[in-house]
Write a structure and sequence with these properties.
This protein is an all-beta fold and 152 residues long. It folds into three domains: 46 residues, no CATH class; 41 residues, no CATH class; 31 residues, no CATH class. 0% of the residues lie in helices and 38% in strands. It is built from no helices and twelve strands. The protein has a four-stranded antiparallel beta sheet with strand order 1-2-3-4, with no helix packed on it. A four-stranded antiparallel beta sheet has the order 5-6-7-8, with no helix packed on it. Strands 9-10-11-12 form a four-stranded antiparallel beta sheet, with no helix packed on it. A hairpin with a 2-residue loop joins β5 and β6. The N and C termini lie far apart (59 Å).
């Protein structure tokens, strides 16, 4: 490789295009309703899809796009208030809804007592986290920088 006397770094080698494990054609990253995924460029002949994990194809799903309560897929939707994510298990009694955080579902915490989501609330002494199933579950935790401080 020739040496540049001006001190510039040589151009980086182009990144290798991931290949389909079935037909060996290139994969492409697609922004879908249920988050990003990788699809074969040979579609419709090859219908291979892979999950997206930090910008790379993976056979393992990214846990950020899974419901924190029932582990089903989350779907991105839009309404007048903005974007949000809901659980695909809605018809199976999972009513989980999460805010959108720049195209990714917002971080959520589960109640250690009942397994439902925690909700940030404001009380007379400031913010705290309580179970979303109140009054059936009355557990609360203090707030620190927008996250619950859960002690066992």
């Amino acid at each position: 490789m020739p040496v540049d006397l001006l001190g510039d770094t040589p151009p980086a080698a182009p990144a290798r295009q991931p290949l389909c494990p079935v037909c060996r054609k290139p994969l492409r990253r697609i922004e879908g309703r249920m988050g990003p995924f990788w699809g074969c460029t040979g579609y419709p002949d090859c219908k291979t899809t892979l999950f997206d994990l930090d910008g790379k194809p993976s056979k393992v799903p990214d846990e950020r796009y899974r419901c924190p309560v029932c582990t089903r897929r989350l779907v991105r939707a839009q309404n007048a208030q903005g974007a949000y994510w809901y659980c695909t298990g809605y018809d199976k009694a999972c009513k989980t809804r999460l805010a959108d955080d720049n195209g990714v579902p917002a971080k959520a915490w589960r109640c250690p007592s009942c397994g439902q989501l925690l909700k940030r609330r404001r009380g007379r002494n400031g913010y705290f986290w309580g179970c979303s199933q109140y009054p059936e579950c009355r557990h609360t935790w203090p707030d620190k920088d927008g996250a619950p401080v859960i002690t066992s």
